[in-house]
Amino acid sequence: MMAENNWLEDLPEAAQAYLEGRRLDEVECIVSDLPGIARGKAVPASKFMRQEYFHLPDSIFFQTITGDWGEAAGADGFIERDMILRPDMDTATAAPWTGDWTLQVIHDAYDRDGVPVPFSPRNVLRRVVQLYRDRGWEPVVAPEMEFYLVARNIDPAKEIEPMMGRSGRPAAARQAYSMTAVDEFGPVIDDIYDFAEAQGFEIDGITQEGGAGQLEINLRHGDPIKLADEVFYFKRLIREAALRHDCFATFMAKPIAQEPGSAMHIHHSVLDVKTGENIFSDADGAETPQFYHFIAGLQNHMPDALAVMAPYVNSYRRYVKDHAAPINLEWGRDNRTTGIRVPLSSPGSRRVENRIAGMDCNPYLGIAASLACGYLGLVEATQPKPEFKGDAYEGDGDIPRDMGQALEGFDAADKLQEVLGPDFGRVYSIVKRAEYDEFLQVISPWEREHLLLNA
């Protein structure tokens, strides 16, 4: 039980500032499901003060994006067991769009014996991070979030359209890095900044990307679990900011045909726990063998991890030549056509960027899968292919082209699943296959247009 007289004093600084001089009304007790949707309960603050945990059925992790259920309980049948959800008070943050004074708190999922639930996304990421720490390494990530602001769309049969800007004209494409284009969305962006400030999040920058109404938010590098928490929170706050201005924010990988897709680029570096130094650079500032091993891990294992980084059928529409998304796993220095990019940096901040992951992935799982691939490369001490110089779009694709192919690779990837957790791998595959089977039952407009009278 929390002590009612001092638990508020132990909140993160931003949460305390948000509540200063006000009475807390409600606490949203939340956990991320497999798609990254916040599940949980909203409880009065007075009740939250008295509870150490609450219960939810583990079936929330067996649910597909459409609300159906994968038979993920396996041989034991579909048994909904109650989990114990314990708050991580370091994640307590404002929900500034609500009508009263509300906090959100991310909870960790345990079974009745106190063992972390292996298919909870936050636990999957924690498992991977711990594998690094067991070897004396500290992984560091910096995610980049791309998304679209689009006109309200309540008819799934209608194509998605760009939102209307301040000028009264629809957002225009091909305006990458334009400040005028950013200004078109000024009121939405102002609310994003205000919500982020209330929640204690530091935005490293907002830019206009190449698509019509497409924006990118960069976050400062840090602990993978903390950054995944922030992306999880950010996706919600961005949606709420958009709704205030009669538009939608979408994190679909490819919401608009003929426009670039939305990625969650992940920058990685790894520190030596004892020295605090970047293991990708030696004392003279040169690239180390471990730098190359990490790249090799991404090249060798990301095809099998793609089902996690590109979790829906729509995800694979993003991997199109010359549309700012990679089609292969070549690596290059400061080369945005490759799937693996080494940005310009000082030796101390040398890092490797994964440009494969889509913004539609669960941030915990996308970061976990990316780190898992790099970890396997470090452990296996493998060498990457030679650095690619030139336009990687001129080469062949070497990643799965659809969800079915990606799931086949994931199911056969014993090493990857051992890092992520075999129980997670089993549940994830069953849920995603259920989604894929449901998609295959839908007849598309293209099929009706071209096959109805011609096939």
Automatic annotation (TrEMBL):
<keyword id="KW-0436">Ligase</keyword>
<dbReference type="InterPro" id="IPR014746">
    <property type="entry name" value="Gln_synth/guanido_kin_cat_dom"/>
</dbReference>
<protein>
    <submittedName>
        <fullName>Glutamine synthetase family protein</fullName>
    </submittedName>
</protein>
<keyword id="KW-0460">Magnesium</keyword>
<feature type="domain" description="GS catalytic">
    <location>
        <begin position="121"/>
        <end position="455"/>
    </location>
</feature>
<comment type="similarity">
    <text>Belongs to the glutamine synthetase family.</text>
</comment>
<dbReference type="InterPro" id="IPR008146">
    <property type="entry name" value="Gln_synth_cat_dom"/>
</dbReference>
<dbReference type="InterPro" id="IPR027303">
    <property type="entry name" value="Gln_synth_gly_rich_site"/>
</dbReference>
<dbReference type="Pfam" id="PF00120">
    <property type="entry name" value="Gln-synt_C"/>
</dbReference>
<dbReference type="InterPro" id="IPR036651">
    <property type="entry name" value="Gln_synt_N_sf"/>
</dbReference>
